[in-house]
Design a protein that fits this description.
The structure is a homodimer. By secondary structure, chain A is of the alpha/beta class. Chain A folds into two domains: 12-50 and 318-430, Alpha-Beta Complex (Aspartate Aminotransferase, domain 1), CATH 3.90.1150; 76-311, Aspartate Aminotransferase, domain 2, CATH 3.40.640. The first copy, chain A, has 14 helices and 13 strands. Chain A starts with 11 loop residues before the first helix and ends in a 6-residue tail after the last helix.
Chain lengths: 436, 436
């Protein structure tokens, strides 16, 4: 039972009634949700907030068009990475001066991986493994591999990326060889949530540092980076923060680590005095040294408006309330699949407990459904947008800012109809798109 | 004498007449140049093209707002880095498959610095210096320092960044220890152009690789990367390409080097099959492996429109014609300063010859003018926007797409008036802004 929302409604009319009395229900008006869609993919790309076009138009037509170069000062472009970062900080349990919005999640991962590895190379050079999960989002693993390869190929030691497959293995892997642990807080495929406090504490006891990827957490599930002992974190701007396609990402560095080293992507915006044109890099004090090149202002303006769209829930209980509604939406989804799709063989892979569940529900599709790819295409064809994650996962993102209980009801009705009629088994639904 | 434009006009009326018959004059209509400004800072931030708001609004409201996640395929977001890169390739003498638009110039520099260093670590491990100029744009030096520090601090060899102060020293520094040369084609301060063909050939004879920074070249001066033997290049989207504040940058890798190594920022968009969610990085064939994270689509859409604004000159002679006009504008600027500001002590630091001059003119200000900072502030106060580069350079960018001969005439009249009246010597003009 989820606080505030009660057990899943058992009729469509009850869903409509629950939406009508939902204290978060009014937030949907802040978004342009296309009328013909049930959009359950806000964990891939959040919906356009109504305020965003105005915010971007201001940056584009007034600040750039009229102000031109003067807007770096007068429109405060130069401090946008910090001002947007400070807003994000409030959503993830960090101090304002611990977060900047910049670059992509992958690039930010490289910065913190390198900074953390360098700390360990100084303090504990015998530690040579980076531990992560095989089921982590692949780009996290790729960035670690890129760093390891670079160090090894240019004459440094051979670090090892050690991938584990279970919580038990993970605990065991945090041994005397482990330099860093790289974990994604909410698993992109299953939606399972790691216990940040317990894992951070365990890592620290073993002498390892922890980097948390908050791609599926920021704006979606309660996160308390400082309370829970995180060393470094990164996250994504275009999922639950609604910052638009490819929005800048963010990076968090705990205050205690900030001034120890500069990160290797030491571009001019991280310099203590970028307009001195000093040929020698001197890092800024604080989180600012995690900036690199010139920020993409138009995309940053959209991110600013996107973060504001999440902050609009602050007075209504903030991220904790959003997560509680998300879990209630998920409970409804799960209950309706059990009621309407029994026998289809869909296996829930998302944990049931509130504290263990991110803002999505995912099902593994059986071989009889061809692994599920075509099922998702058939759903999309009916205007229900979730996504498919290879090899066989149907993933439904739940963004309580703009998703209603009735949407969930209707989505599962579509799913049931597709499964019952085998409408998914058409050649056009089996044809893979470039992006899935 | 500049081809097509003749000697500098000697009256304001002659400037107006020259503008009227300028075959490139009509291009100004493609831009929203604020009516009250003479904007000579397009080498810091290009002017807003008239087509950009529509292009961005399409990406924002239709592609994101309506298409949502489907736009990665249906609006071809996923291939934008390549399609915009292919357009840029035509401006810099590269093949379409050698350029992608992505990340920032600094981040792209890190990729090619690391890839090049890795090539040399394999082929010629005794080569341990990266040679550059002390007067290079600082971020280029910072990125090299960041890479060197990372390798050294994690247990690898000590590479050295060797900075030279003169062309003679540069030639001498390309010795048996030199792994890479990192040069900016057009110097940001003086506007002097390097001889890419001669320097690339010399570097190759000495066994070094060459990375060219085209920040002040792309869209402004003729560049022939393939003809002139470049190994790697990077460049900026928001200067002469008019892509908007912090627009994505670009990276070029010569075909012969592309598939040798992956670069260390090995994010998922550089993977051969990003949607297989393979835990092991397998780079794409070709330039695509120089992509990293998800591209910022709104800023990329603006860059697309910005590049189109330069391509609009193609039928009128392209970059060569733009550069010829830029040099004519510069000649007028220089002639007018000689005529109207004689005795003020402004010393031209931009080369006179067409082949040696970028798309700007720069003057060193004498101590009697307080180094020039306040002079530039006084000019800006009158609506003539150039910029100041510490410690004492007045820099005027010339973007022939939207700059008229009459603008140059008027700009120097303002400068002369300010110098004559000492109007610059007021407290408010001495106060330094955060961004200069």
């Amino acid at each position: 039972m989820t606080p505030g929302f009660g057990p899943p409604p058992e009729t469509r009319a009850a869903c409509v009634a629950l939406d009508a009395e939902d204290p978060l229900g009014g937030l949907r008006e802040l978004f342009r949700v296309p009328a013909d869609l049930i959009y359950l993919d806000g964990n891939s790309l959040g919906v356009l907030p109504r305020a965003t076009p105005g915010r971007v138009a201001r940056a584009l037509e007034s600040e750039w068009g009229e102000g031109l170069i003067r807007s770096w000062n007068e429109a405060h472009w130069i401090t946008l990475p910090e001002t947007v970062g400070a807003k994000i900080a409030t959503l993830i349990g960090a101090h304002a001066a611990e977060v900047v919005a910049t670059d992509s999640t992958s690039v930010n991962l490289f910065k913190v991986l390198a900074a953390a590895l360098r700390m360990q190379a100084t303090d504990a050079p015998a530690r040579r493994t980076i531990v992560s999960e095989r089921g982590n989002f692949p780009t996290d693993l790729y960035m670690a591999q890129g760093l390891i390869d670079l160090i090894g190929a240019t004459g440094g030691p051979r670090y090892e990326l050690r991938l584990v497959d279970s919580p038990l293995e993970l605990t065991a892997a945090l041994d005397a060889q482990c330099a860093l642990v790289l974990l994604t807080h909410v698993n992109f495929k299953s939606g399972a949530v790691h216990d940040m406090a317990a894992l951070s504490a365990h890592a620290h006891r073993q002498g390892a540092l922890v980097i948390w990827d908050l791609a599926h957490s920021a704006g979606a599930v309660p996160v308390a980076l400082n309370r829970d002992g995180a060393d470094f974190a990164v996250g994504c701007g275009y999922k639950f923060l609604n910052g638009g396609p490819g929005a800048p990402a963010f990076v968090y560095v705990a205050t205690r680590h900030q001034d120890r080293f500069s990160q290797p992507l030491s571009g001019w915006l991280g310099h203590a005095a970028p307009f001195d044109f000093d040929p020698v890099y001197r890092p800024r004090a604080g989180i600012g040294r995690y900036l690199c090149g010139t920020p993409p202002i138009l995309s940053m303006a959209a991110l600013d408006a996107g973060v504001d769209s999440v902050l609009a829930a602050t007075e209504l209980g903030g991220v904790a309330a959003l997560h509680a509604k998300s879990v209630a939406l998920g409970d409804l989804f799960i209950a309706r699949v059990a009621a309407r799709c029994a026998g289809a063989g869909l296996a829930l892979i998302t944990p049931r407990a509130l504290a263990e569940r991110g803002s999505q529900v995912s099902f593994r599709a059986p071989p009889e459904l061809g692994g599920g790819y075509a099922v998702m295409q058939a759903l999309i064809d009916r205007g229900v947008i979730g996504d498919f994650r290879a090899p066989d996962v149907l993933r439904f993102g739940l963004t309580p800012l703009y998703t209603r209980f009735v949407d969930i009801w209707d989505a599962v009705e579509h799913l049931a109809a597709i499964l019952e009629s085998r409408a998914w088994d058409r050649p056009e639904f089996h044809q893979r798109a470039a992006v899935t």
